[in-house]
Amino acid sequence: MSTSAILLVIILSYFALLLGIAFYTSRGSNNESFFIGNRSSKWWVVAFGMIGTSLSGMTFISVPGTVGMSGFSYFQVVIGYWLGYFAVAFILLPIYYKMQLTSIYSYLDERLGTASYKTGALFFILSRTLGATLRLYLVIKVLELFVLKEMGVSFEFTAVLILVLILLYTYKGGVKTIVWTDTLQTTFMILALLVCVIYIMNNLGLSISGTWEAMTAKGYTKMVNTDIMSAGSFWKSVLGGAFITIGMTGLDQEMMQKNISVSNLKDSQKNMITFCFILLIANFIFLLLGGLLYLYADAQGISATGDNIFPFIALKSGLPFFITICFMIGLISALFPSADGALTALTSSYCIDILGMKRRDDWDEKKKGKIRLIVHNTFAVVFLGCIFFFREVDNGSLISTLLAVAGYTYGPLLALFAFGIFTKRNVNSKLVPIICIASPILCYFLKEHEANLLGNYKIGLELLLINATITFTFLYLFSQKTTPKTV
Fold this sequence. Notes:
Helix content: over 70%
């Protein structure tokens, strides 16, 4: 049996394991199980499983690849992530639990009205669809390029098959299933990461201190960018990372539906704080792996860089087969937590926020389940279309694209929640959708013409904050000083 065939068997066996877990956990499931896991999830299980969702295949492939170009500068963003999780835990989670929300965007309905509610939900749907499919595309690309192409399996067939398999293990259990499948997948991903780090370190004959010295000599450990004018400066990265976390975690139905599936606020906050410390360590290890990969590439005369360096070394450079297996298990473990959770969250948001399923007393449980299944399958088709689109526009390093997408799409959502929480004013409902669409367009114009408008100043991750500030300002200018609804 060829190497590619063995890897394919491993991938299919992995799917079989996921389907077994899905069958076990979805017994007796209903719509509440799908949306919020009946609020019975254990906080420590959610905390560990969320690592896989947050890291994803994008982190697994792209973060090590950035080291050769920008050293450890990505860790500046990670520090910002870490700070943002505290804001989520102690500002947003108390609101969600107080209101006993199934969809977090219901807060906007109570505080700012239906137009803000629908606009916020639609921006989440846009953001998460683009983000999830971008991550999914990257992993399918690697599978096709390094494994399935040799077997004559096309990119298109691989994409369809993976989405069908994801549908099979999420269509019934939803969050109740994903909490446990994410935990399994996070375990495999972390183990694969550690095995690769330890093996390459030993192969190069380096200790931990020796590894750090070798990477420092090559400039790979440079972390802090003190040039305030550059897009990757320290304070821009930290500030941008913090607000990206607030947007992509605290205001994201996918991430929050797992948190609010925990039975009480105190345990949910434990989950968030535990999760943010583990994530800090995990991202550092990914950067350490990136430095080791470039050291190994230099030693072996390998020219691969960026997103290709990890898969090339793991699959094509002659390393022992067990490293190839570890890489493949780690890769598919990184793939599914971001894709399955997104598909479930998008289904939940569309059913609850757009279709108003929770308020439809004329729909019985059977009809709600049927509609939920149609929406679930429809989003899978949308995912497929986005994956094919990203294949056409791939620029070779997709993590920067992911963060840019977040900057444009989460800005209005951040502004709506900030306006609701920190002001006592009511918005002009008719203008909310117009403002939320106009602000990202203005930001795109600003980014495209930054050289003419801002001189040497380069916009980095603070794009999200600029976007949110513009949106907030216009919401305030066209708001009324009246007493808001009590929430």
